[in-house]
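Progress note, sequence design subtask.
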């Protein structure tokens, strides 16, 4: 599949796409007038998409009775091939910062410091020169350091109800595995800590080897060639795992319901998956902020969610925390008792969850702040050494 090659900042990739697109159009059409009319047509379609006040009516019948959680749950109760697409927002209530939330997100904490860019921790070239900031993050996110959230357990419940086709996660914290979702149901699109490889000779290392070294605040080096050993987390510019490509191809055409949860949908190719389901497959976004909307004419009809446009037939945006959203969804599905039982059996009492929810933002912000301070110190020290 042409699109599932590299994780990129979608904004960058779009810019390139746009250039390609315009160049091709220029080749095809020397005639200025036809280019102009094409552009005008695109603009008209774009304003139709972006504005909910236009008089255009949707062409086909809606798939959902109404565009809210209740209707989504009603539809979902009949589905058996549900795909979940998850992001960092499902783990923030475990105290793990996300990347892009203003204030609490790791990137915004890092932006206070004089780093090349906050995303640099996931760039291979930066890592080769200075792997320390990444290993500080790795230590913080080390599997088993955190306990899964109610959202992770809700996804497990989906599986126990024989409804989960697959969870595609962008997260590298392994909380899906720790929550007891079977590994064959999980696709870790941005990789995993479970295996690592030497950047030089590709020798494979296991979790224990890396853990031992990074917990001593040292950098893991290859025992054969002394190259840096990097966990198999996908960095910007690297190919996504083969399993991602395979499962995208086998799953998305089968999906009868899509849940998108806790992600800003800003990173390609992951964010494009929302457009790979059938046009009649409902797409439910549970997130603290809107995501996945068309932001430019180049997004038209392709990868965008249409929940606040008059073209909407099947998209629902439920604005809430992930944990609140899934708790309400469980109630609407009639699974409240099963969900509570599962949480209790895992030591997550409903009372604790409520208490957690009120204290989490502070804890997450503190964690992000602390981590950012250490990463910045590691980077700035390294820069000084080089001077
Ligand atoms: P982001 O930080 O970009 O987005 C997280 C989204 O979750 C935001 O829209 C938040 O508003 C929302 N959110 C945060 N906490 C929430 C909560 N408790 N309940 C509901 N919503 C919440 O994270 P991702 O979209 O996962 O790449 O980022 C994608 C990729 O960018 C990551 O995988 C990472 C990063 O660069 C790699 O690791 C390679
Ligand atoms: Zn090596």
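Output:
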């Amino acid at each position: 599949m042409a699109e599932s090659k590299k994780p990129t900042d979608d904004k960058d990739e779009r810019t390139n796409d746009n250039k390609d697109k315009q160049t091709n159009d220029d080749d095809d059409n020397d005639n200025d007038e036809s280019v102009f009319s094409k552009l005008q047509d695109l603009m008209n379609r774009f304003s139709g998409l972006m504005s909910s006040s236009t008089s255009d009516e949707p062409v086909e019948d809606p798939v959902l009775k109404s565009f809210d959680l209740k209707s989504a749950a009603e539809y979902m109760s009949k589905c058996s091939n549900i795909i979940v697409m998850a992001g960092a927002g499902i783990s923030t209530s475990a105290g793990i910062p996300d990347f892009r939330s203003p204030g609490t997100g790791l990137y915004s904490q890092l932006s206070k410091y004089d780093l090349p860019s906050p995303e640099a921790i996931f760039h291979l070239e930066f890592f080769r020169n200075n792997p320390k900031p990444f290993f500080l993050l790795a230590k913080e996110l080390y599997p088993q350091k955190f306990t899964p959230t109610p959202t992770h357990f809700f996804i497990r419940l989906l599986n126990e109800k024989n409804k989960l086709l697959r969870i595609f996660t962008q997260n590298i914290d392994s909380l899906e595995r720790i929550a007891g979702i079977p590994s064959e149901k999980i696709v870790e699109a941005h990789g995993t800590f479970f295996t690592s490889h030497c950047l030089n000779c590709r020798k494979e290392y296991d979790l224990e080897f890396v853990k031992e070294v990074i917990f001593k605040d040292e950098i893991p080096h290859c025992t054969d060639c002394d190259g840096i050993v990097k966990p198999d987390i996908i960095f910007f510019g690297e190919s996504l795992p083969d399993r991602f490509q395979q499962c995208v191809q086998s799953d998305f055409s089968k999906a009868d319901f899509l849940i998108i949860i806790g992600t800003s949908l800003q990173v390609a190719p992951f964010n494009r998956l929302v457009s790979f389901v059938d046009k009649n497959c409902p797409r439910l976004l549970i997130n603290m902020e809107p995501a996945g909307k068309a932001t430019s004419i180049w997004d038209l009809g392709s990868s965008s969610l249409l929940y606040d446009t008059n073209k909407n037939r099947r998209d629902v945006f439920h604005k809430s925390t992930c944990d609140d959203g899934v708790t309400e969804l469980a109630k609407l599905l009639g699974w409240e008792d099963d969900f509570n039982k599962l949480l209790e059996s895992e030591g997550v009492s409903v009372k604790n969850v409520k208490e957690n929810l009120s204290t989490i933002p502070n804890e997450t912000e503190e964690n992000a702040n602390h981590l950012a301070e250490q990463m910045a110190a590691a980077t700035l020290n390294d820069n000084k050494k080089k001077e």
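Residues 198, 200-201, 203, 222, 224-225, 227 surround zinc ion (ligand 2) (CB under 6 Å). Work on this subtask will continue into the next period as scheduled.
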